[in-house]
């Protein structure tokens, strides 16, 4: 039976460290600040944004929320980003994804000052991640690396399989595992023999967004299984991509949903906001 990886406890530790760093910055007269922009009324996004605001309060980060109506134009949104780029009390800018149809998300991301891009979505930061020298790590993949580290399993030399190739999770996840010297395979909707490839994974990360996608038979005995999925099952219950009841008896370590990757993403966002404040105030760590 797998050991459950406790994302809540691990993220609490990260948040504690961040709170300590915020306190030290405040002693130097620096107050880290994050602006969160949400457009429209997507229910899931609303929950995520509320959680991000609460996390800021808990660690002492100043936050501003900009809740814009669903009919906001591209020009209005870009003008807001421009204003936030210039606002000194704001160190990090996060535009909650997805944006309503009709808005060009890529153009919005490119408008964010790379020094304030705490999601690490801007092409400049994506390039830095490719090169392995970064200020901001993308929050979810960085959180996953922390969860894997917590198991004591060394990523170096291991077969790592990432299911999903999104810009937010799959691609940067693969890159971070590669930087840790993992041997990385990226699988996606066109992958042939997916089950077979997964069976060879010492570390399996699923970021597909489909309930019941990873079956127990796909899990190598003793593997580290990380479930990035946030789905609703047929009964409306929150669940990941991994069929937990089948995978748990086979895996060595496994993340639950909820309580696995989710809390880590927010903790890493807090960490990035502090890193952004340090960068803008030229504080060395
Ligand atoms: N929507 C889902 N995950 C994320 C994230 O990490 N950042 C942003 N900005 N939007 C998201």
The rounded distance between the terminal residues' Cα atoms is: 41 Å
For the largest beta-sheet, the strand count, sense and barrel status come to: 6 strands, parallel
* Share of helix, binned: 40-55%
Q: Ions, cofactors, ligands: which are bound?
A: guanine
The total tally of domains equals 2
- Poorly predicted parts: none
CATH A-level architecture of the largest domain: 3-Layer(aba) Sandwich
Structural class: alpha/beta
Please name the fourth-level CATH homologous superfamily of the largest domain.
NAD(P)-binding Rossmann-like Domain
Mean pLDDT across every amino acid position: 97
**Content of β-strand:** 15-25%
Question: What topology emerges from the helices and strands here?
Answer:
Blueprint: E1 3-4, H1 7-27, E2 33-39, H2 43-59, E3 62-68, H3 74-86, E4 92-95, H4 105-111, H5 123-131, H6 139-151, E5 159-163, H7 170-179, E6 183-187, H8 194-199, E7 203-206, E8 224-227, E9 231-232, E10 238-239, H9 244-247, E11 253-254, H10 261-280
Parallel strand pairs: 1-11, 2-3, 2-4, 5-6, 5-7, 7-8, 8-11
Antiparallel strand pairs: 9-10
Helix pairs in contact: 1-10, 2-10, 6-7, 6-10
Bound molecules: guanine (GUN).
The site of guanine has 9 residues, from strand 4 and helix 6.
Explain what you see:
Helix 1 packs parallel to helix 10 and helix 2 (43-59) crosses helix 10. The model has no long low-confidence stretch (mean pLDDT 97). The strands form 3 sheets. A 6-stranded parallel sheet has the order 1-11-8-7-5-6. The chain has 2 domains: 30-116, Rossmann fold, CATH 3.40.50.10860; 139-262, Rossmann fold (3-Layer(aba) Sandwich), CATH 3.40.50.720. The protein contains 10 helices and 11 strands. It has helices spanning 7-27, 43-59, 74-86, 105-111, 123-131, 139-151, 170-179, 194-199, 244-247, 261-280; strands spanning 3-4, 33-39, 62-68, 92-95, 159-163, 183-187, 203-206, 224-227, 231-232, 238-239, 253-254. Strand 2 (33-39), helix 2 and strand 3 (62-68) form a beta-alpha-beta unit. Residues 94-97, 119, 139-140, 168, 265 line the site of guanine.
């Amino acid at each position: 039976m797998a050991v459950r990886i406790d994302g809540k406890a691990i993220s609490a530790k990260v948040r504690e460290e961040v709170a300590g760093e915020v306190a030290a910055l405040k002693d130097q007269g620096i107050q880290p600040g994050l602006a969160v922009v949400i457009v429209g009324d997507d229910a899931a996004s609303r929950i995520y944004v509320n959680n991000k605001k609460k996390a800021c309060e808990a660690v002492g980060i100043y936050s501003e929320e900009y809740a814009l109506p669903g009919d906001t134009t591209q020009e209005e949104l870009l003008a807001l980003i421009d204003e936030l780029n210039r606002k000194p009390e704001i160190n990090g800018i996060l535009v909650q994804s997805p944006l309503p149809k009709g808005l060009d998300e890529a153009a919005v991301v490119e408008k964010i000052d790379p020094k304030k891009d705490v999601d690490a979505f801007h092409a400049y930061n994506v390039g830095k991640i490719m090169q392995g020298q970064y200020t901001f790590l993308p929050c979810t993949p960085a959180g996953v690396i922390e969860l894997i580290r917590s198991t004591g399993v060394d990523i170096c030399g291991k077969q790592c399989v990432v299911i999903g190739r999104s810009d937010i999770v799959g691609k940067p996840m693969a890159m971070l595992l590669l930087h840790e010297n993992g041997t990385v395979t990226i699988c996606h909707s066109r992958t042939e023999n997916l089950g077979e490839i997964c069976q060879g994974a010492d570390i399996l990360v699923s970021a597909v967004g489909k309930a019941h996608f990873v079956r127990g038979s796909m899990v190598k005995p003793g593997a580290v299984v990380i479930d990035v999925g946030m789905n609703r099952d047929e009964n409306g219950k929150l669940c990941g991509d991994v069929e937990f009841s089948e995978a748990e008896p086979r895996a060595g370590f496994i993340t639950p949903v909820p309580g696995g990757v989710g809390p880590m993403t927010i903790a890493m966002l807090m960490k990035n906001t502090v890193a952004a404040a340090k960068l803008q105030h030229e504080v060395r760590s």
